[in-house]
Design goal:
The complex is a heterodimer of chains A (480) and B (46). Chain A is mainly alpha-helical. Chain A has one domain (3-386): Sodium/glucose cotransporter (Up-down Bundle). Chain A contains 20 helices and no strands. Chain A starts with a helix and ends with a helix. The relative contact order of chain A is 0.19. Chain B has one domain (1-33). In chain B, 74% of the residues lie in helices and 0% in strands. The relative contact order of chain B is 0.09. Classes of the chains: A mainly alpha (480), B mainly alpha (46). At the A-B interface, helix 5, helix 9 and helix 12 of A face helix 1 of B.
């Protein structure tokens, strides 16, 4: 059977399952809380695996392979730091506390947390707008990654790849809300894990085993096996921080914490997310070995798609395509639900004080998520060129806005309203300006933005003292 | 040179993953011990 026929069969089966979950979730979505949070009902497996699915988008598989190809085996450190900082420490430091506080405050979004914790609707609206704007940029890059894979593996026109993957996501998110996002995320995570393991197994075999592959790579150039290798410390370390610590301020990932069933769930969840996320090293490893197998490759973004054509059977390549699509879809879907809840609940309902019944709020979320999804697809039709640059940019701004106000808000009662708001504005502005200035001194916009954000919230909170009202302190911290 | 012809600095990335898994398990066990609802621990405390 040809590659294209195999891909069509695998994808039709896979997309049918996703659409089926979307239809099933409609019946389970009875309130706005169900649509946004799935009624805080999820266990460790589904939460941890959907966290992985949203974290590691198609940008990881395609972009990670490109980085491995360009900079060599030292890039597996990015995957390792993703596991330690982006998953294990993130779950330990933020998980239980985020769940506890959002439940006690009765909020369902990160922007809602800021509005209530700092008694500042303006902070909530500002955060929601930053999330809205920059997650659309992020989603465009995610769709591009998926469509490129369709192009290479199925010889399909780029626009068709955008439409097929995008419209299925918009369908199941708009219908099924967060429940559909989480349950499809579970399936998508398994598809990603299986397809990456399969690719790695075959690639390592094709280079003659891990030791032989490393030797061959070292013969091409010692920089391709060393750390930091041809990239250098500044590039490697700052990129590790962006894509690992940046996660701590990403609402589409944090939402997993407040939708979890109970605090105990974090124990097994933390172990599952750590073990599962270990696949994050595989795209880099495969990308590095692609230099041995496809030395004449011009475009590093094609390292993984071309490698899969070379080392996998048509069925294997079809499964890998499903894995790439799965990675992109889960991220796109997770982001859509965050954007719609930020706009409808934080900006329209809480910020502007508009009243909505439960049914109206569900309908508003459906309309917004479908509209935003279609806008992102239309932008993705003619997208900017560099996937990872765009993603790094979006992550830098969102993380610089949310990261420190969230951490300080959770762990320090003295973090003030003015400190948080000033930190958000200064952090996001610094990240934007820094990136626009083309990263002076080679420092990433994320490092500049979060550093400024940290200093501002600390200094302003110390200079202009403010604490939340006593009843709120009692409510949030009272039973600690 | 470390295992699999990898320089130690590169191979250490795998050690970091192993450490992460160990940290997650130790944290989970500690969390069970701290939880007053945990029957076995409550029993032992009595």
């Amino acid at each position: 059977m040809s590659l294209i026929s195999s891909c069509i069969i695998v994808l039709v089966l896979y997309l049918s399952v996703l659409i089926g979950i979307g239809i099933w979730s409609v019946k389970k979505t009875k309130s706005a809380e169900d649509f946004i949070l799935g009624g805080r009902s999820f266990g460790p497996w589904v939460t941890a695996l959907s966290f992985i699915a949203v974290y590691f988008s198609s940008v990881l598989i395609i972009g990670g392979g490109a980085f491995g190809f360009k900079f060599g085996m030292g890039t597996i450190w990015i995957g390792a730091i993703n596991v330690l900082v982006g998953c294990t420490l993130c779950w330990i430091v933020l998980g239980k506390r985020v769940r506890l506080f959002t439940e006690r405050m009765g909020v369902n979004t990160i922007s809602g947390f800021f509005a209530k914790r700092y008694q500042s609707p303006a902070a909530g609206i500002f955060s929601a707008l930053i999330v809205f704007l920059f997650l659309i940029i992020y989603n465009v890059s995610v769709v591009k990654g998926m469509a490129n894979s369709f192009e290479v593996l199925m010889d399909m026109p780029y626009w068709a790849g955008v439409m097929i993957s995008g419209l299925v996501i918009v369908f199941y998110v708009a219908l099924g809300g967060y429940k559909a996002v989480v349950w499809t995320g579970l399936i998508q995570a398994w598809v990603m894990i299986f397809s990456l393991l399969l690719l790695t197994f075959r690639t390592v075999g094709a280079v003659g085993g891990l030791s032989a592959g490393m030797k061959k790579l070292g013969d091409i150039g010692p920089g391709y096996v060393n750390t930091p290798g041809v990239w250098g410390w500044a590039g490697l370390v700052s990129f590790c921080l962006v894509v690992s610590l940046g996660v701590w301020g990403m609402p589409q990932l944090l939402i997993r914490f407040y939708s979890i069933k109970e605090s105990k769930t974090f124990r097994l969840g933390t172990v599952i997310v750590t073990v599962g996320a270990s696949i994050a090293v595989l795209p880099y490893l495969n990308g590095a070995f692609a230099r041995i197998l496809i030395p004449a490759l011009d475009n590093p973004d094609l390292a993984i798609p071309q490698l899969s054509r070379l080392v996998l059977s048509p069925w294997g390549a079809a499964i890998l395509l499903a894995g790439v699509i799965a990675a992109g879809m889960s991220t796109f879907a997770g982001v859509l639900i965050i954007i719609s809840s930020s706009l409808v609940r934080d900006v329209y309902r809480n910020g502007l004080g508009k009243k909505l019944t439960g049914a109206q709020e569900i309908m508003a979320n459906r309309i917004v998520s479908a509209s935003v999804g279609i806008i992102a697809l239309l932008i993705a039709m003619k997208p900017p060129a560099l996937i990872l640059v765009l993603t790094g940019f979006a992550w830098a701004v969102i993380a610089s806005t949310n990261l420190w106000p969230l951490l300080f808000g959770l762990y320090w009662k003295g973090a003030s309203r003015m400190g948080a708001f000033a930190s958000m504005i200064a952090g996001s502005a610094t990240a934007i300006i820094w990136t626009w200035l083309k990263k002076p001194f080679g420092i990433h916009g994320f490092i500049a933005g979060t550093s400024v954000s940290f200093i501002v919230i600390l200094v302003v909170s110390l200079v202009k003292r403010w604490t939340p009202p006593p009843q709120l302190i009692e409510k949030i911290w009272g039973e600690e | 040179m470390g295992p699999f012809n990898m320089p130690w600095m590169t191979f250490s990335a795998f050690i970091v993953i192993g450490v992460s898994i160990a940290v997650s398990i130790i944290w989970a066990i500690n969390d069970i011990k701290k939880d007053p609802d945990n029957d076995r621990v409550t029993e032992r405390r009595k």
